[in-house]
């Protein structure tokens, strides 16, 4: 059995919240009743992490379960995460919004590393069933490579968009009637045409510098396209190692699928579908006072996963008859279009969870 799936004795466990930073981390330990047991600040180095592991052994007498919460497990806490995940059965990722909520609704507004670590303990003791675990798959080389490639692909896309907008303006300044100046996309054929056109010395361009800028940006855009194609190929190969079955879901392209896989980091982290939907930031938040009861859209959750599911829902709304029928059914029930879309997103999230859990293709 995977160590991350073993049952946990929460009553006798030692709860440890860790506030991570680039150069050092602060850990605070407490029991089930949030009574402080110790505090440690240690450097973010292999030696510092070894000191932390020894400290936890002393606290737990080498027998009690340690439940660890890390905020920023995929950022500054990556080295710590990789060290503690194989050792402890219960390592959880804590969304910063949870600690912010605890701080905002508390009686004190203190902000320090030990205070943040104590707030994580409060989250662990009160919301443990809602938190995703950090698993061995989360720390695998393939998963980290996929996460970095997805981030790199997004950066390339933003750079392409910026260059296209700049070229639109430059082309419009030269010839406002040109098809290229009004085109939303730039094909390689169009870009090569403008390279040839700007090479002519008799072209009525304001100055030589403007011609130089245009040609330079075209070359940058062509290089970005080549690089993104290479990144797409590498992402495709990595997706095939994980849940390639998600590609059978209508609206889920290769990049959207890669974003879901890299955001989820192993479906085994989630004990049930409710945890998954909440992690995606789709589960509604209840606001109730007296006889008034409302549900509002959650602002927390993993934004990358939320955006990927939103993209699938919008695509299905345009192209999938069943999704259109479901959306129209919610409208007929009196829901607004925005609320109906959130319902469709939740439906998509449930399908994604089932496909990743069972490893099956979409059956319609």
UniProtKB/TrEMBL annotation:
It holds the Pfam family DEDD_Tnp_IS110. Residues 16-170 form the Transposase IS110-like N-terminal domain. It comes from the Bacteria. Residues 245-327 form the Transposase IS116/IS110/IS902 C-terminal domain. GO terms for biological process: DNA transposition. GO terms for molecular function: DNA binding; transposase activity. InterPro entries: Transp_IS110-like_N (IPR002525), Transpos_IS110 (IPR047650), Transposase_20 (IPR003346). This is Uncharacterized protein. It comes from Candidatus Brennerbacteria bacterium CG_4_9_14_3_um_filter_43_9.
